[in-house]
Amino acid sequence: AVAETGTLVVLSGPDTPAANSLLPETHIALVPASRIVAGMEEAWRLLREECGELPRAVNFISGPSRTGDIEQTLVLGAHGPYRVHIVLVRDW
User: Fold this and answer.
1) How far are the Cα atoms of 19, 20, 27, 85 from residue 23, in angstroms, in the given order?
2) What pTM was computed for the model?
3) pLDDT (tens digit, 9 = 90+) per residue, 52-74?
């Protein structure tokens, strides 16, 4: 997670397809406190250090999906979750 923007960083993989974070109406993420970095630069550095080669998809989630494309009316949940909840936990 990125503290500066309140953003979740979600990686795709064999056990974690990208659709897992995009299809549910409510996204609930459990985030260990030690996995929070200050800014995007630190997030990318951590990704490179831990993954080496980046996965096929890296999604940045900074709240509910929203769009104003339809008659310039704000619509939530159009391209992803309608609600996003982050639960911070002590390291396990």
Assistant:
1) 6, 6, 9, 15
2) 0.74
3) 888 888 888 887 767 776 677 77
